[in-house]
Amino acid sequence: MVLARLQWRVGPSHPHVFGYTRGVSTADSILTLLTQIDHRPTVIVFIDLEKAFELASPHAILDALVRKGVRGRLLAWLRDYLQCRHARVKFQGLRSTFKELENGTPQGGILSPLLFNLLMEQLVALPFHAGTVLLSYADDLALVVTGRGNKLRRTQQALDLISGKCQDLGLKISAEKSRAMMVKAADPAWQLRVQGVELAWTNSYQYLGVWVDKRLSFTAHAAYLRERTQSRLNSETSLVPLTTRIQQITACRVSRVLQRDTEGVTQRRLRLAGTQGIESLSRNPWLLQCTLATHNLARMENWPQADLPAPTFSAPPPWEPPVAEFSATQLPASKALCTVEEMQQHAFMAMAQVTEPDSVVYYTDGSADPDSGRTGAAAITRGAEVCERTPNHCSTLQTELVAIQLALEHAQHRRERTVVLHTNSRTGLQALQQPYPSNNVGLVTAILGSLQSLAAQGRRVRLNQPRGSTRQ
Questions:
Q1: For residue 363, what is the DSSP state?
Q2: Residue range 24-72, pLDDT digits in tens
Q3: Helix ranges restricted to H, 324-371
Q4: What is the CA radius of gyration of the chain?
Q5: Residues 17, 121: contact at Cβ < 8 Å?
Q6: Cβ atoms of residues 392 and 374 within 8 Å
Q7: How many CB atoms lie within 10 A of CB 352?
Q8: On the chain, which terminus has fewer CB atoms closer than 10 Å, C or N?
Q9: pTM to 2 decimal places
Q10: Are 278 and 292 in contact (CB under 8 A)?
């Protein structure tokens, strides 16, 4: 409950904060890194934070929460959550004395990742020079410096800025474990420093599980994958060739990036590469490999559009009650033990219990023909029937959701105070009760928008599943 309210209050994370974010993985951080390099001479510093979660300053976290607009009881609750924590150790039946934990976030706490990301946002949002970005995935940081001019000087200035901010946040950079890499250029004689300690130059570095080398050839990573595969399996006769598997994974990643809800630099680069010839990409290996991997996929203009929320839907705060009442009756026994007459009688009784005077009642259903792929949806009420031919090969769930939407749209023009809707789609009702729908987003939010519209009119909506059993 606290996490949902806190997420609502602080809003989405900075686009360069990738860790602990819904729908974002290490692949997004790596793709952003490669996009920033763009086959140009680049300085990368892989920054290692020492015991980041244990050293994070609670005062810095609370200050970040205040800047995000967190006030009142929620802020006071979070202050108690972070401060004055005590712990002790139990070993062989003996307990130590309690020790106060002055810094850090509670290990394993559901709020800790979000609170830690607030500190990472302050680092990636520092006022760097043009061509300088800082990427964060949990406590793994990558400083990328590109563009013309003295890149080493701009890198050192960025490191000084990051180092100073880390001290304010209670964080500590481990210069011994951090590494610098010069991509597409020879290693310079000049050394970068963090808090007076020189950083070692390296030819390759394992960043978020992927070996990145200064030539961007990824031969080190391919050798690493081959070695791991051979060590785990005795024979490779039944395996898909490694090159084919890498292309398959690359195509999946590219597809995922292209279908993001928000347009980014990586999306634009990949879309542009899809419209260019292979010859023009010969000097950019990673774009070339991405394009080759997706060569057999659909044309760029035929990629499915992002499944965005309906414009009629307004995401409510998590503490508001649902805009509709949901109910599902349960059979006295499993369907296998009930006769058809018993199930019909039980369904009629269940529908009668939720039907009230001055109410309009709808019966909805959707169907899909597995042989022809034809699908349709319908909603029926007294004196009216609304049907719609849905696109071929829709899922049964999608047709059932369309039927519910048809009923709600029809109810907008009725005057009854209560709208009762009966559906046998248990999965459909479950989808409508999810706080953050991840599938069929446009369709589900369109229904929720209709429910919000009816609620704004002061009307009551009840969605009921009159048949089926949770003990099937």
A1: E
A2: 889 899 999 999 998 899 999 999 998 888 888 889 999 999 998 888 8
A3: 340-354
A4: 28
A5: yes
A6: yes
A7: 9
A8: N
A9: 0.56
A10: yes
CA–CA gap between residue 74 and residue 295 (Å, rounded): 51
Distances (CA, A) of 156 to 132, 201, 293: 11, 14, 38
Dihedral of the CA atoms 327, 330, 336, 341 (nearest 10)?
-90
* C-alpha–C-alpha distance, residues 160 and 151, integer Å: 14
- pLDDT of 7 reads 82
Nearest in space to 241 (alpha carbons), one of 253, 255, 252, 225: 225
| CA 75, 77, 81, 84 torsion-angle sign | positive
Residue type, 249: I
3-state helix/strand/coil string of 67-120:
HCCCCHHHHHHHHHHHCCEEECCEECCEECCCEEECCCCCCCCCCHHHHHHHHH
Name the 3-class secondary structure at 46. Answer: strand
pLDDT recorded at residue 262: 65
Q: Tell me the two tokens of residue 77.
A: 């609750």
- Compute the distance between CA of residue 71 and CA of residue 56 in angstroms, rounded to an integer: 21
Give me the DSSP letters along 233-296. Answer: -S--TTSPPHHHHHHHHHHHHHHHHHT-SS--HHHHHHHHHHHS-GGGGTT-HHHHHHHHHTTT
Q: How many CB atoms within 10 Å of residue 239?
A: 11
Pairing of the two strands 94-95 and 90-91: antiparallel
- What is the Cβ-side half-sphere exposure of residue 432, based on CA atoms within 13 angstroms? 30
DSSP notation for 140-189: EEEEEE-SSS-HHHHHHHHHHHHHHHHHHHT--B-TTT-EEEEETSPPPS
Q: Write the single-letter amino acid at 394.
A: C
Phi, psi of 337 (to 5 degrees): -100, 0
Report how far residue 459's alpha carbon sits from residue 119's, in angstroms, rounded to the nearest whole number: 44
The size of the chain, in residues, is: 472
Residue 314 tokens read as: 């307004």
